[in-house]
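Here is one chain, start to finish.
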Amino acid sequence: MTAEEDLRKAAAKSIKKKRGAWQFLVVTLVIFGLMNVIWALNTPGESYWPIWVLIGMGIGVVFSFLDAYTKFSNNQISDEQINAEIKKMQGS
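Its structure:
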């Protein structure tokens, strides 16, 4: 594989992570909405138990966005990293 192909794969992986993070956020909001409806219909006035769903899934959403939009996982390959690896492999 060439360096350009590796970069294209890394870019595709990054796009998939970003799409996945947004999809997970939408799923979280839908589930949280459903939990609120269930709570409001069945146990209004009692303890607000849907908060536990929001906290649990919210943690997952935060880490999903950190992975997709920051160097949290550092899976993207830069030209400098590729050039450094080539130099190591060539023994220089």
